[in-house]
Amino acid sequence: KQEVTQIPAALSVPEGENLVLNCSFTDSAIYNLQWFRQDPGKGLTSLLLIQSSQREQTSGRLNASLDKSSGRSTLYIAASQPGDSATYLCAVEGNGQNFVFGPGTRLSVLP
Amino acid sequence: DAGVIQSPRHEVTEMGQEVTLRCKPISGHDYLFWYRQTMMRGLELLIYFNNNVPIDDSGMPEDRFSAKMPNASFSNLKIQPSEPRDSAVYFCASSGGSSYNEQFFGPGTRLTVL
Fold first, then answer.
1. Stretch 82-101 of chain B: residues touching chain A, C-beta under 8 Å
2. Do A89 and B43 make contact, defined as CB atoms within 8 angstroms?
3. pLDDT, tens digit, for every residue of A1-18?
4. Cα–Cα distance between A58 and A88 in angstroms, integer?
């Protein structure tokens, strides 16, 4: 059974710092990995999707990498801003659109 | 497109009552997912459909839960009878079309069962 963990559970940084969020999964037989952002009381917003054949994806200040063999993905946020404060979740897609989510990392960027 | 639409946004009901949650996926998407989010268990996949057909309902917690997708533009999730432990935020998501496999989530329905 696929299990997804995220480290750290919470992170607080001053504005302007670069930071890395980590996602680990136990079964490397995945099709895709997707990073989401969730604001309090809101739904999930898709940030980046990395297909299993890819190693990384970039969108603006965000860069996500994927190492299937080691069961790891990282989300790099450059020059963090207070507006980046949210919970970040990763999800892995296994066989047959079976998505498993991690518990999330709660990020606070202090002005 | 307006994105995934869910209704109601908030539902408060008493134990034993039937609850119906509704979802309209993004037009052209052929996959629809129902999730439940709680503090204790995080985000859990309950059931998903492909082309209106239920593919995997192994995440549905009990027989009190049922979901249908009568057409490509509508799905509902029913809980009958509801119990306090069903209190959670229920999300609907869809994927497909040109953004195959990328999931797009609705705003969720916050359910409180008293």
1. 91, 93, 95, 101
2. yes
3. 899 999 999 999 999 999
4. 16
